[in-house]
Design a protein that fits this description.
23 helices, mainly alpha
C-alpha cells in the first residue's frame, strides 16, 4: 500500500484516514494489552481522585474481578449462538445472494453499511458475526466480479454500524428498564420500549447516524485503486472457504448412535419444546424479552436450522474461538469495574460532568459520560449499574424524562465502540484482521458521528 503524499486538493480526507490507520497500526497494541493498560490507568486515577490507598484499590480490583461471570457467560452465548446462526445453510444462502448485488467498489462499501445496520438492529450478537461473514463474502464476490474494493475498508464499514446496536431490538438497558423488577425500578419505574426504542427522537438520531456513515464510506474514505488491499493478500485461503458448517458422515458401518447424530428428529422435537416454552413465557407468564430469552431463542434457531446434532456440534465448535476475547478479558474489565465502583471514582466523574450541564445539554453530557466510562467498562448492561444511580437522580433534578436519559446513555455506550476494541474481538477473529488495521477508519467515523449524536440529543425534539 502506497504511503507517499497525495495531492491535497483531491485526497485530503483519504490522507487523514491513511495517517490515522498508520498511527493505529504502529502504536495501538492488542486489545488484551489495552485492558492491562486501562487497569493501570484506573488505578492511578483512583489514587489521584479518591481517598483510596493502593491496598484499597487492589482490594476493590479483586472484589470486582469475578462479579461479571454470569454476564460474561451470557455474552459468550450470544457470540457463539450468533456465529452458529450466521453459519446455517439458510443464512448462508441469504448472505451469498446479498453479497453478489453490488457492481462497483463504492456500492460494496455502501452495501456493507446498510445491510450490517439491519443485522445489528435486529440483534447485536447475530449482527456482529453475520456482519463479519458478510464482509468476507462481499470481498469474495467483489474479487470474483473484478471489482477493486479494499478489504480493510469493507471490514471497517461492516463494523462501523455497530454504533447503533444499543438502540436496536436487543439494546440491553432499554430491555432492562422495561422489566418489572429491574434494580432501579423504585427510582424510575418501568419504562416500556415504546418510550425508548420506538420514539421519533431515537429513530431520527439513529437514521442520521447511519446516513452520515453511508456518506463517509461512499465519498470520503474509499482509497484509490492502486492503494486497495484485497482479502487474498491478507488471507490467501479466503477464496476457498465456505461459510456453511456441515458435518460429514463417516464411511464405516451405520450404528444407532450415527443415526441419532445425523438425524433431525431430536432437533425438531427439541425445537418444539423451545417454541412451547416461548408461548408460555409471553402469553401465560406474560414476561418480557431479556438477554436470557434472546439466547434461548438463538439456541432454538440454531438447533432448528442446523437440523442435525452433528451439524450443530460442528457449528458451535467452529464458533467458540470467536469468544476467546470475552473469556480472557472480561474478568479484567470486571476488575476495572470494581475499582471504579467501590473507590467512588465514577461519582467523581459524574459530579464533574453534572456540575456543568443544563436540562438541554444533559443528554449530550450523559452520552459523553457513557462513552468515557464505556472505554473502561465496555459492557452496556454492567456499566448501567454503575452510572444509573447518578445520572437518573441528576436528570430528575433537571426535569429530564428518564426515557430520554436512557436513550442518551445508549447512544454514548454505542459511540465508543468505534475506538474501543473489546466488542470487536469476535468480529475481527472472523475477518482475520487486527483492530489497529481498521481503527484509522472507525476513528474518523467516531468523530463525525459523534457530532451528529451530540447535536441530535441536544436539539431533536423528544
Amino acid at each position: 500500500m502506497s504511503t507517499g503524499p497525495l495531492p491535497t486538493s483531491q485526497t485530503q480526507p483519504r490522507g487523514l484516514t491513511r495517517w490515522l490507520t498508520g498511527m493505529a497500526e504502529r502504536y495501538v497494541p492488542d486489545s488484551y494489552v489495552i485492558v492491562l493498560i486501562l487497569t493501570f490507568v484506573t488505578f492511578v486515577l483512583g489514587l489521584l481522585f479518591t481517598n483510596s490507598t493502593p491496598l484499597d484499590l487492589v482490594a476493590d480490583w479483586g472484589k470486582g474481578f469475578w462479579v461479571l461471570l454470569e454476564f460474561a457467560m451470557q455474552m459468550t452465548l450470544i457470540v457463539v449462538t450468533g456465529y452458529a446462526l450466521a453459519t446455517t445453510p439458510f443464512v448462508n444462502r441469504v448472505l451469498v445472494r446479498m453479497a453478489s448485488v453490488p457492481r462497483t467498489a463504492s456500492g460494496v462499501y455502501v452495501y456493507a453499511v446498510v445491510i450490517t445496520f439491519i443485522a445489528y438492529y435486529i440483534n447485536w450478537g447475530f449482527g456482529l458475526i453475520f456482519s463479519a461473514l458478510f464482509a468476507r463474502e462481499l470481498a469474495r464476490q467483489a474479487s470474483r466480479n473484478g471489482i477493486k474494493a479494499d478489504y480493510k475498508l469493507i471490514v471497517a464499514a461492516a463494523y462501523a454500524t455497530f454504533i447503533i446496536w444499543h438502540v436496536g431490538l436487543s439494546g440491553s438497558v432499554p430491555l432492562l428498564v422495561a422489566t418489572d423488577n429491574h434494580f432501579m425500578v423504585k427510582e424510575m419505574g418501568v419504562i416500556p420500549v415504546a418510550q425508548t426504542l420506538f420514539v421519533p427522537y431515537t429513530i431520527i438520531i439513529m437514521l442520521l447516524v447511519v446516513l452520515v456513515t453511508v456518506f463517509l464510506f461512499w465519498k470520503v474514505l474509499p482509497p484509490r485503486e492502486n492503494q486497495v488491499i484485497t482479502m487474498e493478500e491478507i488471507d490467501p485461503e479466503a477464496m476457498r472457504e465456505h461459510n456453511v458448517v456441515e458435518a460429514a458422515r463417516g464411511t464405516g458401518p451405520v450404528t444407532p448412535a450415527d443415526r441419532l447424530m445425523y438425524s433431525g428428529i431430536l432437533s425438531y422435537v427439541m425445537a418444539a419444546m423451545f417454541l412451547v416454552y416461548l408461548g408460555y413465557h409471553f402469553f401465560v407468564a406474560r414476561k418480557s424479552l431479556d438477554i436470557n430469552l434472546v439466547n434461548f431463542i438463538f439456541l432454538m434457531l440454531i438447533i432448528l436450522l442446523h437440523r442435525t446434532p452433528a451439524n450443530l456440534i460442528r457449528a458451535v465448535q467452529k464458533a467458540t474461538p470467536a469468544a476467546w476475547g470475552i473469556i480472557l478479558q472480561f474478568p479484567f474489565y470486571a476488575g476495572i469495574f470494581g475499582m471504579m465502583k467501590f473507590s467512588g471514582l465514577v461519582e467523581v466523574f459524574a459530579r464533574w460532568i453534572l456540575s456543568v450541564t443544563t436540562a438541554q445539554t444533559f443528554p449530550a453530557f450523559v452520552a459523553i459520560l457513557s462513552a468515557i466510562m464505556g472505554y473502561f467498562i465496555p459492557s452496556g448492561g454492567s456499566k448501567w449499574a454503575v452510572e444509573a444511580p447518578y445520572i437518573i437522580a441528576a436528570g430528575a433534578q433537571l426535569g429530564v424524562p428518564h426515557a430520554k436519559t436512557v436513550i442518551a446513555y445508549a447512544f454514548g455506550n454505542d459511540w465508543i465502540n468505534l475506538i474501543q476494541p473489546f466488542w470487536a474481538l469476535p468480529f475481527l477473529t472472523v475477518v482475520k484482521l487486527n483492530f489497529r488495521e481498521i481503527v484509522g477508519y472507525t476513528t474518523l467515523v467516531f468523530v463525525v458521528t459523534g457530532v451528529v449524536i451530540l447535536l441530535g440529543l441536544t436539539f431533536v425534539p423528544f
